[in-house]
Amino acid sequence: MKKPPCPERPGSAAAPHYLRNLLTKASKSAQPWIATLVRTIFDQPDAEAVRAQFDRVVTTIEAKFPAAAEHLADAREDLLAFTGFPREIWRPEQQFVSEPLNPGR
């Protein structure tokens, strides 16, 4: 049975919440490190590189924070959905955001 789509995929208004939820699976001191690693997934030149970097990040995180790695691996399909579209139409908001979109509110 296929799981329902995650409402917190990149490009949705809930995308910032995915990173926050993921970071709760690691110690406070490791959260900036994990956030930096995750952002590298979305800073790749093409879909193949995005998928390869995703795998590297999961493997790296898994060594110290298996619960966080499992959480990230479970969200793979949803987080990488944007790679199914041509690179030319990828937008920054389709990528991972960790700050509020309206910080002045």
TrEMBL record:
<keyword id="KW-0233">DNA recombination</keyword>
<keyword id="KW-0815">Transposition</keyword>
<dbReference type="InterPro" id="IPR001207">
    <property type="entry name" value="Transposase_mutator"/>
</dbReference>
<protein>
    <recommendedName>
        <fullName>Mutator family transposase</fullName>
    </recommendedName>
</protein>
<comment type="similarity">
    <text>Belongs to the transposase mutator family.</text>
</comment>
<keyword id="KW-0238">DNA-binding</keyword>
<keyword id="KW-0814">Transposable element</keyword>
<dbReference type="Pfam" id="PF00872">
    <property type="entry name" value="Transposase_mut"/>
</dbReference>
<comment type="function">
    <text>Required for the transposition of the insertion element.</text>
</comment>
